[in-house]
C-alpha cells in the first residue's frame, strides 16, 4: 500500500512540475519575463537558447524585434553564423540585448550550462564598451550613421542598460551569473557616469530644470531629433522611467534630489486632465482610429512630445511638420504610435513617500503645485501646525496631496474642509504622532447641537486618507466629546487610535461611504455613532465602561449601515454590561460578522432606546461571531442571525460601492 501511495505522489509531483514548465506565452519578451523558472530547464527553452546564441554577435550584442523562440531553417542558421562576426544591427533599442541577457541568466540558473554564462558576460562587456565617455549610450553600437549616435532615452533604452549595470555593481541576486570583481568595479563606475549624464541632460526651461528629451546630442548633450515624426521635444513618456530610476537610488545626492523634485513639478505642470483617448477597433481588435475626446476631470495623461519652451503638445506625420492636434496627422501615424501616456502617474504616486524618506520639503517656489507638505514641531518641516498645512493645500486638486506629520503631540483642533479633497493625512507613527484637544458639550456651549463642534479632528473632504495617527479628545468623561468626525465621502482611516469617552467617533454625511481598517477605537457611551455607511475591518473596539458601543442613524432605504468584520470587541474589567448598539434613529443598521465578542457583551445584545418602532424598522444582525459574548440564543427577538448566503453579500465591494470603484484599496 505504501509503495502505491508513493507512486501516486510521484505522478502528482511530476504532473505539477510538467504544468509549471509549460510555456503559455507567444511574445519573446513575455517568454523571458513571465515564464515559470522551471520552464528554463526544459528542452523547449534550450532550443530557444540555441537560437539566442546564434543571434548574438561576437561583439556581445543582439539585434532587435526578433521572436527568437521561433524555429530556424538551416539556411537561417547559416546566415546567422555568417553574421556573428559582423556586429550588424546590434542595439539596445526596444529592449534588445538587455532582455536576452536576462534570458541567459534564467537559463544558467536552471542548467548551469557555461555557454549561457559566457553569453551573458559578453553581453555585459558589450554594454560597457558601448558607453560614451560622458556616460550616455547610443542606440546602436558599433555606431551607425544618423540619429542612432545620439544618447538615447527613447523607449527606456538607457534606463534598461543602467538597471542591468546597477544589479551587477550592487551584486544583487537578480542575475544568476556573478562577474568577477574587476567587472563589478567597472559597473560601479559605469553606473555613476550614467547617472551623471542623466543629470547633465535634464533640460532647463528659462533656467528651471524640467524633464528629458528622447534623444540628446552625444557631444553637446542638447536635445536632438530622431525620425521625421520624432522632433526635438520634452518627453512625457521617456522622462518617467528616468525619474523612477533616480528615485530608486539609495541615499541620493542633493543633485539627484533636485532633479527628481524638478521633474515631479514639471509632470504636475504638464498633466492633461480634460482629454481621454477613444480607440476605434475593427472586428479583429486592431486599432483603426484614435480620437481625443474632451471630458471633465479626466484621469491625467501626458503628451509624448512637448515644446521645449512652452510645454505645448505637438504631433508629426512622416513629413516632419508639427501639428497642434492628433486629428491633423494621417491615420498611419495617428493609430500606429503612442502619442499620449499615463505612465507619469506612477511618479506622482511614489513621490510623497520618496520625499518623506529623503527629507524633502515644499519650498516657496513650489507652493502652487503642492504634492507633499511636512509638519514638524521642531521646525524641520514646512509647518509646525497641522492646520497651517491644511491651509496650504490647493482646493479640489486633481492629484493627491500628502500631509506628512512627524512624531509629536499636536495640541490643536484640526479641520479638513470639504474643498480639501484628495488629501492624505499621514503620521510618522501611530503611537507617537498624536493630535489632541479637549472640547466637550459643556465647554462649547452652543446649545443642543454643541456635540458636533467638539471634534479634535474633522474630515469633511471627499477621497481622503488618514493613517498612522492617534486622535484624542482629552476632555475626559464629561459628556459628549468627539475625537474624530468624518463627514466626507470615500474616506479611509487606517492604523489609527481613536481615543475618547462618549461620542468618540462621529461618522455621517448624506450617502457617504467610509472605511476603517486596523484601528483601535475606545469610548464609553455611543462612541461610534452617525448616519454613514461605514465598514470597520480588523479593528479593536474597546469599551471603557458599561454602556452602548454604537448608535447608528442610518437613513431609510440605505443598504448597509455600520458593519464590523473580523473585529475584536474588548473592554476594561469594570465594563461588565455592554450593548452592541442602540438606534439613534429608527432605521438604524448595524451588523457584526466574524468578530470576537468579549464577556462584557450583554446576552440580549441590543437595546431599543425606548423606541418600540425601531424594533420593526431597525436592522441589527450578527454572523459567525465567537467568544463569551456571542450568546446568539439569548439575543433580543427583533435582532437577526444571518445565513451564510446572506453574510456573503457583506463584502467591502458591496458595502462601500461608489462611483469610484475600489476606492477603499488605496
Number of strands: 36
Query: Which CATH C-level class of the largest domain is it?
Result: Mainly Alpha
What number of domains?
A: 4
CATH topology of the largest domain: Glycosyltransferase
Distance from N terminus to C terminus (CA atoms, Å) equals: 53 Å
Give the uncertain stretches in residue-range form.
10-20, 362-368
Q: How many helices does DSSP assign?
A: 17
Kindly estimate the percentage of residues that lie in beta strands according to DSSP: 15-25%
Please describe the biggest sheet, giving its number of strands, its sense, and whether it closes into a barrel. Answer: 11 strands, parallel
Can you list the strand order of the major beta sheet? 11-12-15-18-21-24-27-30-33-35-36
Helix and strand content put the structural class at alpha/beta
Q: Based on CA inertia axes, which overall geometry fits?
A: elongated
Mean pLDDT: 92
Give the helix proportion (percent range). Answer: 25-40%
Radius of gyration in whole Å, from Cα?
31 Å
The CATH architecture category of the largest domain equals Alpha/alpha barrel
EC number: 3.1.1.11
Signal peptide: 1-21
Keywords: Aspartyl esterase, Hydrolase, Lyase, Signal
Pathway: Glycan metabolism; pectin degradation; 2-dehydro-3-deoxy-D-gluconate from pectin: step 1/5
What does this structure look like?
By secondary structure, this protein is an alpha/beta fold. The protein has four domains: 21-201, Glycosyltransferase (Alpha/alpha barrel); 205-360, Glycosyltransferase (Alpha/alpha barrel), CATH 1.50.10; 366-508, Single-stranded right-handed beta-helix, Pectin lyase-like (Pectate Lyase C-like, 3 Solenoid), CATH 2.160.20.10; 524-666, Pectate Lyase C-like, CATH 2.160.20.10. A hairpin with a 2-residue loop joins strand 2 (204-205) and strand 3 (208-209). The chain is elongated, with a radius of gyration of 31 Å. The two termini are 53 Å apart. Mean pLDDT is 92; it is low at 10-20 and 362-368.
Amino acid at each position: 500500500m505504501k509503495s502505491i501511495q508513493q507512486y501516486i505522489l510521484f505522478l502528482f509531483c511530476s504532473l505539477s512540475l510538467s504544468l509549471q514548465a509549460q510555456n503559455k506565452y507567444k511574445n519573446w519578451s513575455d517568454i523571458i519575463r513571465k515564464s515559470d523558472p522551471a520552464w528554463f530547464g526544459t528542452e523547449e527553452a534550450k532550443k530557444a537558447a540555441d537560437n539566442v546564441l546564434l543571434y548574438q554577435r561576437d561583439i556581445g550584442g543582439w539585434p532587435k524585434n526578433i521572436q527568437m523562440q521561433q524555429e530556424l531553417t538551416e539556411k537561417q542558421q547559416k546566415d546567422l553564423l555568417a553574421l556573428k562576426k559582423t556586429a550588424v544591427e546590434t542595439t539596445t533599442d526596444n529592449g534588445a540585448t538587455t532582455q536576452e541577457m536576462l534570458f541567459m541568466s534564467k537559463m544558467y540558473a536552471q542548467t548551469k550550462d557555461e555557454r549561457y554564462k559566457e553569453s551573458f558576460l559578453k553581453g555585459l562587456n558589450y554594454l560597457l564598451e558601448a558607453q560614451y565617455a560622458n556616460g550616455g549610450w547610443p542606440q546602436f553600437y558599433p555606431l551607425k550613421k544618423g540619429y542612432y549616435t545620439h544618447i538615447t532615452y527613447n523607449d527606456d533604452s538607457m534606463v534598461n542598460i543602467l538597471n542591468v549595470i546597477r544589479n551587477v555593481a550592487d551584486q544583487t541576486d537578480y542575475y544568476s551569473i556573478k562577474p568577477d570583481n574587476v567587472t563589478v568595479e567597472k559597473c560601479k563606475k559605469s553606473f555613476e557616469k550614467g547617472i551623471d549624464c542623466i543629470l547633465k541632460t535634464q533640460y532647463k526651461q528659462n533656467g528651471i530644470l524640467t524633464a528629458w528629451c528622447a534623444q540628446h546630442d552625444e557631444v553637446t548633450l542638447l536635445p536632438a531629433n530622431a525620425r521625421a515624426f520624432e522632433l526635438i521635444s520634452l518627453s512625457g513618456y521617456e522622462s518617467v522611467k528616468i525619474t523612477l530610476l533616480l528615485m530608486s537610488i539609495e541615499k541620493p545626492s542633493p543633485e539627484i534630489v533636485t532633479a527628481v523634485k524638478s521633474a515631479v513639478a514639471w509632470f504636475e505642470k504638464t498633466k492633461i486632465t480634460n482629454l481621454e483617448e477613444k480607440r476605434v477597433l475593427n472586428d479583429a481588435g486592431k486599432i483603426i482610429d484614435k480620437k481625443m475626446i474632451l471630458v471633465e476631470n479626466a484621469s491625467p495623461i501626458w503628451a509624448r512630445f512637448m515644446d521645449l519652451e512652452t510645454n505645448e503638445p505637438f504631433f508629426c506625420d512622416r513629413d516632419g511638420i508639427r501639428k497642434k492636434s492628433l486629428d491633423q496627422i494621417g491615420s498611419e501615424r495617428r493609430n500606429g504610435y503612442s502619442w499620449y501616456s499615463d505612465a507619469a502617474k506612477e511618479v506622482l504616486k511614489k513621490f510623497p513617500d520618496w520625499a518623506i524618506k529623503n527629507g524633502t520639503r515644499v519650498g516657496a517656489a513650489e507652493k502652487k503645485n503642492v504634492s507633499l507638505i511636512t509638519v514638524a514641531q521642531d521646525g524641520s518641516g514646512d509647518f509646525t501646525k497641522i492646520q497651517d498645512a491644511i491651509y496650504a493645500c490647493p482646493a479640489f486638486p486633481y492629484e493627491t496631496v500628502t500631509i506628512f506629520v512627524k512624531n509629536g503631540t499636536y495640541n490643536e483642533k484640526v479641520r479638513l474642509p470639504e474643498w480639501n479633497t484628495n488629501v492624505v493625512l499621514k503620521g510618522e507613527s501611530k503611537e507617537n504622532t498624536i493630535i489632541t484637544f479637549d472640547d466637550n458639550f459643556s465647554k462649547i456651549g452652543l446649545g443642543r447641537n454643541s456635540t458636533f463642534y467638539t471634534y479634535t479632528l474633522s474630515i469633511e473632504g471627499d477621497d481622503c486618507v488618514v493613517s498612522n495617527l492617534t486622535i484624542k479628545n482629552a476632555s475626559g468623561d464629561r459628556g459628549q466629546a468627539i475625537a474624530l468626525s468624518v463627514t466626507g465621502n470615500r474616506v479611509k482611516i487606517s492604523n489609527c487610535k481613536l481615543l475618547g469617552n462618549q461620542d468618540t467617533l462621529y461618522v455621517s454625511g448624506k450617502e457617504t461611504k467610509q472605511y476603517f481598517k486596523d484601528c483601535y477605537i475606545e469610548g464609553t457611551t455611543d462612541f461610534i455613532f452617525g448616519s454613514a455607511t461605514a465598514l470597520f475591518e480588523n479593528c479593536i473596539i474597546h469599551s471603557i465602561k458599561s454602556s452602548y458601543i454604537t448608535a447608528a442613524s442610518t437613513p431609510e432605504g440605505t443598504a448597509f449601515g455600520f458593519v464590523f468584520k473580523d473585529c475584536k470587541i474588548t473592554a476594561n474589567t469594570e465594563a461588565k454590561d455592554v450593548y452592541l448598539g442602540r438606534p439613534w434613529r429608527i432605521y438604524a443598521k448595524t451588523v457584526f460578522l466574524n468578530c470576537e465578542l468579549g464577556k462584557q457583551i450583554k446576552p440580549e445584545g441590543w437595546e431599543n432606546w425606548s423606541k418600540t418602532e425601531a424594533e420593526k424598522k431597525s436592522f441589527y444582525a450578527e454572523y459567525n461571531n465567537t467568544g463569551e459574548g456571542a450568546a446568539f440564543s439569548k439575543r433580543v427577538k427583533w435582532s437577526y442571525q444571518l445565513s451564510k448566503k446572506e453574510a456573503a453579500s457583506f463584502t467591502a465591494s458591496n458595502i462601500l460601492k461608489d462611483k469610484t470603484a475600489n476606492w477603499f484599496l488605496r
